[in-house]
User: Which sequence fits this backbone?
């Protein structure tokens, strides 16, 4: 769907994207993750030619973006809907007119336009708000309008620029659910720029980790969180206060293991007591995964490590700094 | 208190007499002022809008940045705005004669008024456009809107409330300028106040003119505020 090779982008003398190589497959949810200022949003804007690039290539559905003329760019943008962190709706217009806007731009006849807008509002659940001004809507409702507008031209790719960053956690979930549903029903490819790990875990099949415009990692979301490299760790890790003394061990739970009660089983097998210091269970796309941090007395450490080794579990000894 | 009431009545009669004496002149002047101000407001808005569209498009963060074009217009606008209006009227007299057929009279003043106010209008309109949320403009572009569509379907409607307030500012400024139109026989309230009120020591005429000007300014500003509230 999208093929990026050796991409370079700079603003004047400042390089913002460097040597990026990846492909995005049809139907997947691809996450672009990083701190603010990492170049995520700029990368997203290169896909629909809102930003140009200086080196390398971006091919969207086989076509080189930089080589497109004015009409080519228009067509490219029709095929890529975009939603934004701040919704970017026309404040003085009502919901209907906002959703109808892309259709007006493309000269859709009024009757067809009305039919399409009502269909879209039904899809995002805002039929009853059609003639309200967007100013009076809540954040979640505004983003629904944004989504309806982005889908108006039946794009095959949806670009999400921090689409849930301005929303509270509960609204974020409803928006993500909506995105997931429309992805399935409309067979969309979604590219999500975000710094919210909950969003990544819940939505993205694969992610690209950006820092300072460079790729710090690329791969399946699951792999990122189950075996994070140091770079990834600084970005995704939650902080836990660890008990001093003893040794802290972090154990990761992929699907197969989380269904066996591994901790209690180990305690019985070794006849060792240990404290559970912290942990987290989370939803990754469709599964529940998690980790647990246990604190083991030094005298039992070797036994425990041997056990973990033997059972081929994912674990690591945490240093005090983390 | 008969004495007081008599003085009051006498004052009232004096006011009435003064009003009757200059009523025709006053309304003639009022009409000239309204005519000059409204025509020049409309014309300067048209030219100002064209200039503003070019500035918005070619500006540093515009839809199609072009530093050379932007800087030329920017400089021309600043230059025209720094000329004192009274000098401008006289300086462009030949041009006025060429375009309007005559260099003097109420209609002739519309030309210098427009030329003086168009750069100002351009700045005001540019300012209103720059206030439009960049994100909304970006969204429009992301759906494939052309530059014209972005300007006329997004920026103009979004800028409308600010624009309306700025048009009121523009009209009031032109009302001030129009007082100088007497120099080329343009007439108007300012001219009347100057000719009769100041030169011939008819202070009551000056006061009538000022009162009417106050009312005009109030009407323009209130209309602007009212529309602004409606449009927001």
Assistant:
């Amino acid at each position: 769907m999208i093929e990026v090779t050796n991409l370079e982008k700079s603003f004047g003398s400042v390089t913002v994207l460097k040597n990026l190589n990846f492909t995005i497959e049809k139907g997947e949810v691809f996450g672009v993750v990083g701190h603010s200022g990492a170049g995520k949003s700029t990368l997203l804007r290169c896909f629909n030619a809102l930003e140009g690039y200086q080196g390398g290539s971006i091919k969207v559905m086989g076509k080189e973006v930089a080589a497109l003329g004015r009409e080519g760019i228009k067509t490219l943008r029709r095929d890529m809907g975009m939603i934004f962190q701040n919704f970017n709706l026309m404040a003085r217009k009502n919901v209907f007119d906002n959703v109808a806007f892309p259709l007006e731009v493309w000269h859709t006849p009024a009757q067809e336009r009305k039919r399409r807008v009502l269909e879209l509002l039904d899809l995002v659940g805002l039929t009853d708000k059609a003639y309200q001004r967007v100013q009076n809507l809540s954040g979640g409702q505004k983003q629904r309008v944004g989504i309806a507008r982005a889908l108006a031209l039946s794009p095959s790719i949806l670009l999400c620029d921090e689409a849930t960053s301005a929303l509270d956690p509960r609204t974020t979930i409803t928006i993500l659910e909506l995105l997931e549903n429309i992805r399935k029903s409309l067979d969309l490819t979604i590219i999500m720029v975000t710094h919210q790990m909950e969003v990544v875990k819940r939505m993205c099949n694969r992610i690209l980790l950006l820092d300072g415009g460079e790729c710090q990692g690329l791969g399946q979301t699951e792999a990122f969180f189950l075996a994070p490299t140091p770079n990834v760790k600084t970005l995704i890790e939650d902080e836990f206060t660890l008990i001093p003394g003893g040794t802290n061990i972090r154990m990761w739970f992929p699907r197969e293991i989380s269904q066996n009660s591994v901790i209690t089983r180990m305690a019985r097998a070794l006849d060792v007591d240990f404290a559970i210091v912290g942990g987290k269970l989370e939803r990754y796309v469709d599964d529940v995964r998690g980790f647990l941090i246990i604190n083991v007395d030094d005298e039992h450490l070797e036994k425990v490590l041997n056990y973990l080794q033997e059972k081929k579990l994912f674990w690591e000894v945490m240093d005090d700094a983390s | 208190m008969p004495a007081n009431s008599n003085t009051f009545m006498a004052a009232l009669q004096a006011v009435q007499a003064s009003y009757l004496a200059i009523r025709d002149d006053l309304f003639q002047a009022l009409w000239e002022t309204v005519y000059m101000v409204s025509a020049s407001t409309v014309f300067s808005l048209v030219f100002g809008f064209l200039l503003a569209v070019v500035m918005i498009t070619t500006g540093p963060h515009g839809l199609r940045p072009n530093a050379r074009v932007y800087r030329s217009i920017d400089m021309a606008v600043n230059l025209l705005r720094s000329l004192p209006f009274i000098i401008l009227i006289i300086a462009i007299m030949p041009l006025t004669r060429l375009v309007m057929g005559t260099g003097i009279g109420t209609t002739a003043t519309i030309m210098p008024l427009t030329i003086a106010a168009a750069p100002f209008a351009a700045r005001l309109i540019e300012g209103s456009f720059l206030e439009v949320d960049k994100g909304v403009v970006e969204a429009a572009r992301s759906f494939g809107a052309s530059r014209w569509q972005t300007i006329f379907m997004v920026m103009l409607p979004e800028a409308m409330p600010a624009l309306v307030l700025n048009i009121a500012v523009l009209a009031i400024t032109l009302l001030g300028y129009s007082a100088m139109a007497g120099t080329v026989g343009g007439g108007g309230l300012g001219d009347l106040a100057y000719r009769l009120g100041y030169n011939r020591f008819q202070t009551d005429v000056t006061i009538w003119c000022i009162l009417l000007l106050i009312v005009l300014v109030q009407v323009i500003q209130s209309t602007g505020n009212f529309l602004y509230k409606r449009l927001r």
User: Anything to note?
Assistant: The domain at 36-185 of chain B is CATH 1.10.3720.10 (MetI-like fold). The mean pLDDT of chain B is 91. The first helix of chain B runs from residue 2 to 58. The interface with chain A takes residues 133, 135-136, 138-146, 149, 153-154, 157-158, 160-161, 231-232 of chain B (CB under 8 Å).
